[in-house]
Please model this.
Amino acid sequence: MQLNHIDLQVPDVLEAAAFFERHFQFEVHGNRRSPALAILTGAGGFTLVLQRRREPDGPYPEGFHIGFIIDDVAAVYDKHATIVAAGVDSGPVSEDGRGVMFYFKAPGDILVEVSCRRRPLPAARAGAGGTDPG
Model:
């Protein structure tokens, strides 16, 4: 089984879609001017769906975020500089045992993590999730 998409609720679909296009190279499909729905695809065929939030002031649960992984530590610092230069309020780049990362709020109050892991995650085991491909 493969994760296919994530659907995020945002107060301004057009602003959020433009942000993910500009900073994370997503591509909008369908009606580019819809204020209610945007379907974007990114690297690896991942789909990001943005829908207009019914309750514009409703927050995401604390700690809810989306994460982008980068293969190179220098690229994390470069992305941070690009985000800050674009006027986005971002936390500093930090380093810990997991890797190098920073967090910021994208339009729609979406917490975003950009990171580079020091060690790759363990490979999925055959049979995990109740299925065995063999």
User: Anything to note?
Assistant: The two ends are 14 Å apart (CA to CA). Confidence is low (pLDDT under 50) at residues 128-134.
